[in-house]
Design a protein that fits this description.
This protein has 4 helices and 6 strands; from the N terminus they run αββββββααα. The protein has 229 residues and is an alpha+beta fold. The chain has a domain at 51-141: Ribbon (Umud Fragment, subunit A), CATH 2.10.109. It has a 6-stranded antiparallel beta sheet with strand order 1-2-6-3-4-5, with helices on one face. A hairpin with a 5-residue loop joins strand 4 (97-106) and strand 5. The longest helix is centred in the last third of the chain and has 60 residues, at 152-211. The two termini are 66 Å apart.
Length: 229
Amino acid sequence: MDSQKDNIKEKKKKSGRRLFFRILIIVVLALFIGATAYTLNAHRLVRNAMPMPFGWGASVILSGSMEPTLSVNDLVFVRATGDYEVGDVVVYQSGSSRVIHRIARILEDGSVVTKGDANNTEDEPIPPEDVKGEMVGKVPLIGAAVRFLQTPIGIIIVIAVLILLINLSWRKEKKEDAGDLDVIKEEIRRLKALEEERLDAVIEKTDEEETSPPAEEKEEEKTEDNTED
């Protein structure tokens, strides 16, 4: 009995973990699709080279203009602060491209002059509202993977993998449920066999009782035999 209770508890735990895993995958899938759609719309509809939802964004370094501080394929995280100083590494949009350079000077009219650490010349001054944000962190060398995931093939692969994980979770649970059902069926067959054996024994005993003469008849026969003697 205790073993059955433990098995039931363990199955409930497994079921709960699988449900949590599927919900997590669905949430990740929804976030990925939403973020991809948001980024594509920003790029194509409003020509925003770097969307900043909730004041945060990320960008991949595509050139060596910020060496050795930043290298090609570094992933940088950017936060919009609105308050920038000389020496801050900032991101601004130039045409349809993103530029990640360091603030070299701030002019009297508030315009910002930036310069790449590896460059010999400064960039053209830009109005402060063109600055999208300041770099607050980086992850080296994973930008290539991020860029691949932003391609149509990468998007399809990510969605396919996430859907496959959900499907595998369902299949595994279904397989285990089928195994449990087989065990239940086997137990039912065993109980039926035991019940049939019990019924056969009862029927056999009943037949024996019906074919054997009652005790009173045996007593009468015995009395008759004594009388004749």
